Amino acid sequence: MTGKPTGKSERQRVYWLRDTQQEYPQLEEKLTADVVIVGGGITGTAAAWWMRKMGASVVLLEEELIAGGASGRNGGFLLAGTVEHYARAVALIGQEKAQRLWQFTVDNIELLKDFIFDANIDCQLEQNGSLHAALTDVETRELSDSARLLRAA
Known about the structure:
By secondary structure, the chain is mainly alpha-helical. Helices cover 46% and strands 5% of the residues. The chain has six helices and two strands; from the N terminus they run H-E-H-E-H-H-H-H. The chain has helices at 7-12, 42-53, 70-73, 86-93, 95-118, 137-152; strands spanning 35-38, 58-61. Strands 1-2 form a two-stranded parallel sheet. Helix 4 crosses helix 5 (95-118). The chain starts with 6 loop residues before the first helix and ends with a helix.
């Protein structure tokens, strides 16, 4: 067999989705909705949930398994900030924007936790903090600078 793996064989390699079965009706009729979302990954399902919460009628279309792609393979870490150390973000976009971006991620973590509790989702949420380890002298300086800048902010 050659070529790109199909969604089904790819799903079978993901431990926590291995035995997942979802039963949703096939779209066989004309529907009217305020919003139609194509794609049932984290972005599509989150958008659908929030729009429904605001009173919109929503149709979510997914070809295969909801959260069966990259969203289903996500380890689910809730980390503040971006891939860049905070000091590097400050150097790239400035103190004010870096601080707003950091706060945006913190606020979104709180929104996600509220969603999990409000929707009574049993997802084994654990809040254990996180650790950033330096592997080089440059990273040691960046992490020290990041800690100093975050404390000041």
